[in-house]
From TrEMBL:
It comes from Pseudoxanthomonas mexicana. It comes from the Bacteria. Keywords: DNA damage, DNA excision, DNA repair, Endonuclease, Excision nuclease, Hydrolase, Nuclease, SOS response. This is Excinuclease cho. SMART domains: GIYc.
Amino acid sequence: MLFRRQEREKFPYEYPSHLRELAAELPKAPGVYQFHGEEQSVPLYIGKSVDLRTRVLSHLREPGEARMLSQTRRITHVRTAGDLGAQLLEAHQIKTLQPLYNKKLRRTHRICSIALDLGGVRYAFSNEPNFRLRTNLYGLFGSKMAAMERLRALADEHELCCARIGLERTPAGRPCFRHSIGRCRGACAGKEAGSDHDERLLTALRGIEVARWPYKGRVAIEERDGKLRQLHVIDHWNYLGSAGSLREARRIKGDAGQFDRDDYYIVARPILSGELTVREL
């Protein structure tokens, strides 16, 4: 709040009348918009909306954006066939162009996930070769520390043993600290069967389970808005690009690269729910 107040004092709000006409020319339709300053190579800001005109006009009434608005000289846009395409394009453009005023959707270089295997709890990272193909992954975190904090919170909530899940080092045969304060049911002290503990661990993790890619390879998600048709090409949750026809979509090969957390959050629900048409490529 202090920072925003200082920004308002340094850049007092004045309605950007020089942008009113540019905003009014935008369509009342889904898409992605960019604010540009004098420098042409990098946008000041990138956003998306299901109603471009209304959304951009709302920016002009935001005192907290006075600095950005005073620097803006042009507004460009790309139409999409719906909100899904707008979300995917916005995320891709922000990560690629790194606009000055966008704080969210910056590229995270490495994602960490909690993994379960025969050896117990492990941590898997998105730069590992087979990360996108793995099963039994839980949660998508920006760091190993964040993953451990979430696992610790689940341990507290479900009375799990921090020694058994690797959050506490305990000498063999000795109970973990949380057992001594009544927050562990005693898998470390022989008071609870290990299989019972591990079943509760699995139940606790199911709420943040990372869905397995349900197809053999790339797919195209179809989206329409009147005559505008788009096919969004996805490979193991990663967005590769959009096309206007199946023939063009099949030409989009690309490398899915590292697992992209934002792409996963955008496309997982539409794909798994079946609310949009999905075509295997």
